[in-house]
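Reviewers of the previous submission asked for a worked example of the structure-prediction workflow described in the proposal, so we include one complete record here. The input consisted solely of the amino acid sequence. No template or homolog information was supplied to the procedure at any stage.
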Amino acid sequence: MVSHKLINGEQFSDNRGSLNFFNAFDMSEIKRLYEIEPIDDHIIRAWQGHQYEKKWFYCCSGSFVINLIELDDFEMPSSNIVPKRFLLEAKKPSVLEISGGYANGFKAIEKNSKLMVFSNFSLEESKNDDFRYDLKTWSAEW
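From that input alone, the workflow returned the following structure tokens.
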């Protein structure tokens, strides 16, 4: 089943500092993770799709806009699909879960933003399930 969902985190602060936690985030499927730190807040990384790979996005610094396209065809997708837009902010901890069947694109909206990406596929598995589309394929609000 193609789906996406936002897993809300929680925060705790006291005189020692603050803690972000995600007790509702089941990480049992995860095989790898990586962190993306764009060189500035003008770069748009779009569009990358996966037919089967599942990913989770967590903004650990700054903020990001993430747009999702539910693909109707991986080889020749419709150009009139309207993206679903999400805002991830480090100050409001949440994890965006995206199943296979989507293309995504994202852009930092603050300098020094960092995005952690978790995947249920190994790097080799991911390379075999990777679909790239030109940035201009879909119109999105960045």
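The CA atoms of residues 11 and 20 lie 5 Å apart. We consider this example representative of the routine output the project will generate in years two and three.
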